[in-house]
Amino acid sequence: MVAVMSPCAGQLTALSEVNDPVFNSYTVGDGIAVTPANAGEVTVCAPCSGKAIRVMPHAFVILTEEKTGILVHVGIDTVQLKGEGFDVLVEQGCHVDMGQAMVRYTPQEVADKGLDPVVLIVAMDSARGDAQLTKLSPGDKVETGAPLFHL
């Protein structure tokens, strides 16, 4: 079983409600989104332990011991920013522990550029319904490290 924790504090949003057709159609996989509680600088942490197989300023993928890829995408369409406003804290290929700081950004700066600062957490290649929420529902508030879902 893969346990996935919240990478930041905020309010939960169902993937079906995010404003991106790739994520809200579950094309990438099942998961949930967190709208950061803080408009100031936010540190986005690893939601699980594993190998950081892909690290970009706006997104990272951790491959778990169970060979599940967990994608954390920081904001919607933030690839357009070409790294501006993001501070990457780990190197691609390294092992990361659950809760380890991965990326810093300021949600308000993303919003000021007309983009959604929501943080998406997706179990790649999973089907809708595979991510079993752990006593949480969309609209709930979570702290960094709170259990989100398991597969």
TrEMBL record:
One cellular component term from this protein's GO annotations in UniProt: cytoplasm
Lineage top rank: taxon: Bacteria
Protein location: Cytoplasm
GO molecular-function terms, A-Z: kinase activity
Secretion signal span: none
Main location: cytoplasm
Residue span, PTS EIIA type-1 domain: 20-125
Stored Gene3D superfamilies: Glucose Permease (Domain IIA)
One of the protein's GO biological processes: phosphoenolpyruvate-dependent sugar phosphotransferase system
Alphabetic keyword roster: Kinase, Phosphotransferase system, Sugar transport, Transferase, Transport
NCBIfam families tied to this protein: PTBA
Name used for this protein in its record: PTS EIIA type-1 domain-containing protein
